[in-house]
Amino acid sequence: MKKYFKVYLTIMKANFSMLLAFRSNFYTHTFSALIWGAFQIITILLLTSRTGSIANWSREDLIILVIVFNIFIGLFHMIFSTSLRNLPEIIHQGELDSLITLPLSSQFLVTTRSIYYPSLIRTIVSVALLIYLLSLLNIQVSLSAWILTIFTGLLGLVLLYSIWMIVMTFCIWNTKLSNLFDFLITLNGFSRFPETMFQSLKSILIVLILPFIFAINLPALIILNRPFISELIFTLILTVFFFLISIYFWNFALKSYTSASS
Amino acid sequence: MNKYLIVAKNTWEEIFAYRLNFIMWRFRTLLVLLGIFILWYSITSQTTTIFGYTKLKMLTYILGTSLMFSIVLAGRNSEIGDNINSGDLSIFLIRPWGYFRYWFFRDLGDKAMNLFFAVFEVALLILIFKPPLFLQTNLEFIILTLTFIILALFLNFFMSCLIGLIGFWSPEVWGPRFLFWMVISFLAGAMFPLDIFPPAVFKALEFSPFTYLLYFPLKVYLGEVTVSQIILGFFICLFWLTFFYFCLMRVWKIGLRKYGAEGR
């Protein structure tokens, strides 16, 4: 474990050095991420300007949900999504060869290669906004609730990561599946809506969307002091299940991996 | 003209070259539409009218944006920036065809494919949810809608190409293009009709080019515009078309002088 921690620290430093070498990229991407977050909040403000609520979630609840979404999705994009987006390219170029021969978990290495620092700014700004909004609305969140929120948020991150890893692993068989990343980004986007909004969707599609919704809805439910036990149990089971599947599936897929003559 | 039609046909075939990737893309497009549709389905279930729209007209608007998106906003000219940065532009400059005409017909091929499948995706949502829909029967409104769609198609083409020409000055085109796409998604009426903005904001947006990409043609289709609004909209649209066309030609000439064919 210490070894993995040291390697991850080195990866973070290397990515930070790259950030400093391409500063205009960092500014552009940070600005885009913040604008996107702002648009999401403005959308909620507009949609609830006449109704006051959507799917039994008040305007304030929906804004808090969107901010929680920005916090945890920001963390997800920072830690995982860039690396997973590059996975088809790594496989196609044969760079995976160098990773699977190292004395470390190849899944860990492909997952943590790239750190997307602009998303960290998005997360920090969202945390500040959440604290400000909670104090403005006089919503008291106990210490135990905060700890549970962070725990369930991290649980949601592991769930999202596991699903992403399983889906992106298919690139080992077909490196031209470049649309998988955009497909997963779209599914992530569903998590900024409340789960109650999808109750009208009596279709197999709900099975696809539910894990993403629960991953982010759960921390918001705790902050808002809404019932969350059934969602917590469901998310726990899903997280353990998908995480184990992601490890098994990655190792299974590697058996089919044929090098690109590196 | 034949050579450009072949470009459009080749674009179509290129899209189908990797079929599984294509299926993922269409499934993703369906999910995007589903997310917005469910949001508005949920909102319109709570009340008979919202923002001055009945459930019938609001859901028609939302499904209409999907079809409009594939006609107006879909395209391949986002590759112009990479084309310039990689030096591939040089190949186009020595070929006997217009650069922008090439991208226009490439866009047309992409739009045709997008529209073909968007019709099926919208039909699938209609089959699942059975929403009430408004069908325009007034021929005048239908002709006017088609006119504004064509104007919107050219307007987006000029704006999008202009963004791509940033490639002459910067290796980083992704940022400005993403920002452009975000602004378009928000201010063109892709997620909601623009008249839900506060009146002062909406009044300002009426004079912007974004309003005429998705929102205004759909409002014409819904028959919710007066004759004076149609005339005003037409002239504003024409102004922006002319403005962006001349900007595009000017920036293209300046960019070509600077072009160094790096990468080739």
Structure, described:
Chain A has 262 residues and is an all-alpha fold. Chain A is 75% helix and 2% strand. Chain A contains eleven helices and two strands. Chain A has helices at residues 2-21, 23-51, 59-85, 87-93, 96-100, 106-112, 118-136, 143-169, 179-189, 205-223, 229-254, and strands at 53-54, 57-58. Chain A has a two-stranded antiparallel ribbon with strand order 1-2. In chain A, helix 2 packs parallel to helix 7 (118-136), helix 8 packs antiparallel against helix 9 and helix 8 (143-169) runs antiparallel to helix 10. The mean pLDDT of chain A is 89. Chain B is mostly helical. Chain B is 72% helix and 2% strand. Chain B contains eleven helices and two strands. A two-stranded antiparallel ribbon of chain B has the order 1-2. The A-B interface holds A 24-25, 28-29, 31-32, 35-36, 39, 42-43, 46-47, 49-51, 53-55, 174, 176-180, 182-183, 186-187, 189-190, 193, 197-198, 200-201, 203, 205 and B 18, 20-22, 24-25, 27-28, 31-32, 34-35, 38-39, 41-43, 45-47, 50-51, 128-129, 172, 174-176, 178-179, 182, 185-186, 191-192, 196-197.
Most extensive interface between two protein chains, with residue counts:
A-B, 38 and 37 residues
Helix/sheet category of chain B:
mainly alpha
Task: Give helix and strand order of chain A, one letter per element, not per position.
Answer: HHEEHHHHHHHHH
Strand order of the largest sheet of chain A: 1-2
Q: Tell me the radius of gyration of chain B.
A: 19 Å
The low-pLDDT segments of chain A are none
What share of residues are in beta strands of chain A?
A: under 5%
Q: SS-based structural class of chain A?
A: mainly alpha
Helix content of chain B: over 70%
> Quick check: average pLDDT of chain A?
89
Radius of gyration of chain A: 19 Å
Strand order of the largest sheet of chain B: 1-2
Low-confidence stretches of chain B: none
Sheet with the most strands, sense and barrel status of chain A: 2 strands, antiparallel
Beta-strand percentage range of chain B:
under 5%
| Basic shape of chain A | globular
